[in-house]
Each structure stands twice: as C-alpha cells, then as structure tokens.
Design a protein that fits this description.
By secondary structure, the chain is an alpha/beta fold. The chain has two domains: 7-99, Elongation Factor Tu (Ef-tu), domain 3; 113-236, Rossmann fold, CATH 3.40.50.80. It has helices at 80-86, 122-135, 156-160, 189-195, 211-223, and strands at residues 7-18, 21-28, 39-45, 51-60, 66-72, 92-99, 113-118, 141-147, 166-172, 204-210, 231-236. The strands form two sheets. A six-stranded antiparallel beta barrel has the order 1-2-5-4-3-6. It has a five-stranded parallel β-sheet with strand order 9-8-7-10-11, with helices on both faces. β1 (7-18) and β2 form a beta hairpin. The longest helix is centred in the middle third of the chain and has 14 residues, at 122-135. It is globular and about 55 Å long. The two termini are 19 Å apart. The model has no long low-confidence stretch (mean pLDDT 93).
C-alpha cells in the first residue's frame, strides 16, 4: 500500500446487522469506487495519539467517495467493538483503499460463480451479489453461507428476498432453526457439492472466512474436481 493516502472519513450511517455486527456507511473524500471483493483499511486515533488500524471488506461497491463495511465485534478487539457498539453518525476517522485485485468479481465475467462464506466472510461475497444485481448481470450465482445461528446471520432480510439467478444455501453450524431439514453441524463435502456449481461448469469459486474454514472448504472443492486455479480464497484471523 505504498503511496496510498489516508483520507478523512465521516460516518454517514450506522445500523445493526446481526447480534454482534453493524454496517457503517462512510463518506471518504477522494476514494475511488471499489470493486466487489476489495477491502479498505480503517484507522482510529486516541486522544493521546495512539493509533490502531484494521482492514475490512467492502460490503457494497460502485460509488466513489463511499465505503460501506460490515464489522463483527471481536472480544478484546481494539477497533471492532468501538465500530459496532460505540461509534456515532458524524464521527471522523481515517480510511484508505480500496485494497486488493485478485479476490474480486467484475461484471464482465461470464462464468458461473460459487460463493462460500464462513461467518463474517460473507461480507465481500455479498458485495459481489450486489454488484451483479446493480450491473444487471445474468451470470448465475450460488452462495453457501455457513453461520453458527440465525441470529448471527448477516443480511438476513436481503438474502431471503428473491434474486433471480442467485441461489442461497444456509448451513447452521451451532443452532439450526426449528423445522430445518439439515441438523446443525459444520459444512461438509455434501453441502459444497449440492450448494455449489459442479466442476464441469468451470465456475469461479470464492471462499472467505476464518483460516481453518477456508482451508477446509478449498480442499473440498479440489477433491470434488474443481480447478485449483479457479478457487480464490480470502481468510482472516482472530482480529478480523
């Protein structure tokens, strides 16, 4: 990120997204429009001059001077609890980006797409779904979303709305809703096989989530016959 400037960012909106997460809309003067899958870096500065910064995936792209992110509060975190629980509209912070050029989806792509998310890893994949919709793309998408419980699911209302060409499968790992045909449990090869596109369709596969989840799912995709070069991954550690 050499040469990428920090820019003044102002919180325009803040809304609760799940039990421990919030979406923030920021005005970032001079920031280029992002591409779905990219990230921005956020920096907070304390009164004594101490700074802390973290990277967050863009939840929505396509508009310059705007950065929309969804943040999950991490116990003991320096940045995420403040962004989720305490920050208010009008507060100023700093941002720089967009960052990244490999884990991205662009509307000129024509191959089918399989998206597989673990927890808050759904954020950049949701940006891809929204970018597809905004562009009027007809590329078929399939999303497999692994989440601990219904209460921790991001974008729940939006993902429940009909979106032609986008199929959504939710895998609950800790607590399944009453009447769910699938019991709670970790994502399996069967889930990936039934919820994603078959390898014969030569889809692009995007996998995002905690490191262990991403490595496990990537191995499943390769074992099912997917071209490893078509499997793109984005992972994060405990601090998000």
């Amino acid at each position: 990120m050499v040469g990428m400037p920090w820019r003044r960012a102002v919180v325009l909106a803040h809304r609760r997204e799940a039990s421990m997460a919030a979406t923030l809309l920021l005005h970032v003067e001079g920031q280029p429009a992002g591409v779905a899958g990219q990230r921005v870096e956020i920096r907070l500065t304390a009164e004594d001059g101490y700074t802390a910064d973290r990277e967050y995936s863009l939840a929505r792209t396509g508009e310059a001077d705007r950065a929309e992110i969804t943040v999950q509060a991490i116990d003991g975190g320096e940045v995420s609890p403040f962004l989720v629980e305490d920050i208010e509209v009008g507060v100023e912070l700093e941002a720089r980006g967009p960052i990244g050029g490999w884990f991205v989806w662009r509307p000129d792509q024509t191959e089918p797409v399989t998206l597989i998310a673990g927890g808050s890893g759904v954020v950049p994949l949701m940006a891809m779904i929204r970018a597809r919709r905004a562009a009027g793309s007809k590329v078929p998408f399939r999303l497999i979303y692994s989440v601990r419980s219904r209460e921790e699911m991001f974008y729940r209302a939006e993902l429940r709305q009909p979106d032609p060409g986008v199929d959504v499968t939710v895998v609950h790992t800790r607590e399944a809703p009453e009447g769910s045909p699938r019991p709670a449990g970790r994502i399996t090869v069967a889930d990936v096989n039934s919820g994603g596109w078959p390898p014969d369709f030569a889809p692009s596969c995007y996998v995002c989530g905690p490191t262990g989840f991403v490595e496990s799912v990537a191995d499943m995709l390769v074992a099912l016959g997917h071209d490893p070069h078509r499997v793109r991954t984005e992972r994060f550690g405990p601090t998000g």
